[in-house]
Input
Amino acid sequence: MASNSQLFLKHWDETGLIWIQYQKHKNMAKKENQNELRTFMQSLPMSDYNEIRKRIISECYISYSVWHNWMNGITVIPPLAKSVINDITGYEVFKL
Output
């Protein structure tokens, strides 16, 4: 029969594994969205990049810090902002 400490470690390992899998899934979902935006923005000429960036920041009512977080995959882009970005760019950056 297993001791209490062995049962605790087994339970902790299973919980830790589930938590790690959840974090990986959460981060993958974040990175997919940011990769689409980042890829599109980096494909633009610099003059267009600046203009579109300013329009997205003003029409999504976000700060430059939030823009930076979106581009670097730190925060998730909300679905409403995705549709606004698609409208501004005139291109389907995000599949909604």
